[in-house]
Fold this sequence. Notes:
Chain A has helices at 19-45, 59-73; strands at 53-56, 74-78, 83-86, 93-99, 102-104, 106-109, 115-121, 126-131, 135-139, 143-149, 155-161, 173-178. Chain A is α+β, with helices and mostly antiparallel strands. Chain B has 9 helices and 5 strands; from the N terminus they run αββααααααααβββ.
Amino acid sequence: MSAILPPPQRIWWKQPLDRVELVWIVVAFVWCLVLFFMMPYWHVYGKQNLSSETYRTTPDAFAKKAQAMTDQFKVREEGAEKTPVVAPPAGSDVYLIGRLWAWWPILELEKGKSYRLHLTAMDYQHGFSLQPENINIQVLPGYEHVLTVTPNRSGTYAIVCNEFCGIGHHKMVSKLYVK
Amino acid sequence: MTNTEMFRTCPRSGLQFHRSAEGLIKANAVAAVVFLLVGGVLALLIALTRWQAVHLVGADDFYMILTAHGLNMLAYWIIFFEIAVLYFCSSTLLKSRLATPRLGWLAFALMLIGALTNNVAVFMGEATVMFTSYVPLPGHPAFYLGLILFAVGALIGCFIFLGTLVVAKSEKTYEGSIPLVTFGALTACIIAIFTIAAGAIILIPTFLWSAGYIKYIDPLMYRTIWWAFGHSWPSGTPLPPSCSARSPCPSACRAARSCCTSCSCSSPAPITCCPTRGCPPSGKYSTPAMPCTSQCSPR
Lengths: 179, 299
């Protein structure tokens, strides 16, 4: 039977099924089931998909909270921009701003302690990407994304923007320290 | 009209072509491969830039080329070719005349004008917003208008396919079931209608937003609906100001390749900002401790 011609018999589905065709149908169906159940499984056990909470916010309201945290827990400044490095206490709410084209401030967290990490974008959409852990979340303006994070390895991590945000997108890189 | 005038039998394949349909199939298929060629050349430029030893083009042009590459490959090449396949699978394989060939040419014209308009907006450097064009990253209104025209044309093409199935059935050009390939095309057509309509639904308000008629588009809503453009199963706050929404964009800013326009950063002084090939959000960075970034240099 050619695929480009109408089937020769009107009731074509009552013809006996070829063994090879049956095998392929079963293989395809089983693979579909595997893919389907992998989605919820990987979300729960894959330790890769973030279960973030999302709230509405405004750039001003968020900036105020980030500024208050920075004023209180700043330990030093870094780089040409004199970006503040902030070491907030364990268990507290920590704020990170994405804007054209920087992350602000630099966070210094403690290994094994949990934090509530709040993220927002001031202007356009940005992408929070923590490397080399490869933890990613899209950060939208007008929304506050909250993640509970527990760093399990000390060191210096890179935060890169992985959503296009204009001509300086590739320069939007920062650090995250874990002590 | 006799059968021989309306139809032509291909001497090599033996397939029977409706003459009006044949012209449309050719036009759509040729347009498709031309856009594939353009997208492929752009892909080469992208690869030669990502290859650090060559690093062909600067950031400015790289992002522009990447935007054009995405659109030409993922929208224009695929959908032009899909329309050609739909006409072939309905008209030729069912030995039927194509429903409304004139509307078919209207659909083709809309798609072509839309695709060209969109490409011009991108290559003028006024819509470097990537294929996704996430709001509130601003692009020129012609960018969105071009995509909308293309989507409307493609939807007309889909309905001409469905109309041809109806014509073939009622004129009994075949017996029993439709061929397997035509069945596949029907599935593709149903998915295309859903997804292209989703694209049009979100791009129409985005076009109005970029032209300044709508104040705010929710970025989360945009992202959700936009991803239904091409995927059949997609996954009120104060406005982060963008020039195009709150105040008209200076034309000098739009025209400039690397947009440089002042933004009201209070620290340390009015500064010059080059955020994108559009207008920058202004007045956001008023907290003294959060000075503008290095790309913003004091005037």
